[in-house]
Amino acid sequence: MGRARSDNPNLVKAQCSETAMEFKGVGQRKVVSDFSGGTMTSDGGAVLLEETEELVGVARRLAGCFTDHRDAERVEHSVLELVGQRVFSPALGYEDLYCARGEMENRIQEQQLCLFADRTSTATMRGNQIRLWFASAAYTLLNALRRVGLTGTKLARARCDTIRLKLLKIGAAVRVSVRRVYISMASSYPLQGLFRRVLRRVQDVVALRGVVPMRC
Hints:
about 220 residues; mainly alpha; three-stranded antiparallel β-sheet; two-stranded antiparallel sheet
């Protein structure tokens, strides 16, 4: 006996009925959904943040401040990878206003409200200090993106949370092959031109000047 064909219409119909979800139709069209979209992310713009890290090297410099006392044979992630994750997390909006007193107060408030610098609830002073370091590094990274990539654009003076929402929180499907990781960002993303422009600016500065001095 031969094996049953995988494209058997009855088999396909049975599989669909088990995994598909049907919703209220749109006109004559049925609305059907399932969870076969593959690997996806809501942070497609994080690649732009990675290019900015290449520009300023804030996570790389911060990682150099730590001494790794772990057993090398049991280490899965390097200090740089761990620090990079903790710096990128608040920048992307994951937790671990105008003020009349001037621009300095605005920047302090921006770091507190947008990058969780006020979350110092750890039991030890050292733990709170490290959390503040990571929030400060995330701010430095986003500020470099604003200073280098967004100059002359409508987001040139945008707060960190606005930059995150407009340039980093982009829905994307991720496909991994032998030679590349392909990130397909949402075709409905409204700021495609701005994103390409900012990316070119950051990459051009990296190519021409190397690491840019950090500045608040």
